Amino acid sequence: MSAAPSPASASATPRTARREGRALKGQQTKAAITEAALGLATHIGLEGLSIGALADVTGMSKSGVFAHFGSREELQISVIREYHQRFEQEVFYPAMEYERGLPRLRALFSHWMQRTSVEIDSGCIYISGAVEFDDRDGPVRDALASSVLTWMAAMCRAIEQCQELGQLRADADPRQVLFEIHGLILALHYEARFLKTPGSLERAHAGFDSILARYAA
Known about the structure:
The protein contains nine helices and no strands. The chain has helices at residues 7-44, 51-58, 62-69, 72-95, 102-122, 125-133, 139-164, 174-194, 200-214.
């Protein structure tokens, strides 16, 4: 027969449950604030984010928002991390289901384009953030640059795999190929979002095909 729980252990269980409940609620609240901040940042940029603006959007007090982030800088970094995580979920991981080589590289670009076409109406934090933080140092710029470099490294590796499989020229510089592909995305944002040039998406796709044809083995 098992021994009855001691009074100390019996009282500890409800306390633990309450503690875990508060922690879970805190995590959910922080996630909701980050969601609102991400939506705000895509329209007004990371520099437009502030504890006060977010308090207005969420209906919380400034002190309530501040309690979850501690500073405007930490808020901005949380938004960058959330954006990067969603970018990976929508662009990187689905493409990993494709066969290595050109099928995967095409999938990476296709998913990237799909996300870009949506962000033409809202905005890309990678691009707007680069404009805002290209001339300053600090943790926010570091977090943003790290996210972009992680994505660029994944694209470069996909290009190298195409070379290893004999699908792209072995003497081609993977960084040059990536530079040209990345240039299509940047040009697309400028043409479609700023100039509102018709046919920009089609031109970007045609440009990608042209790059692959030029570097084909």
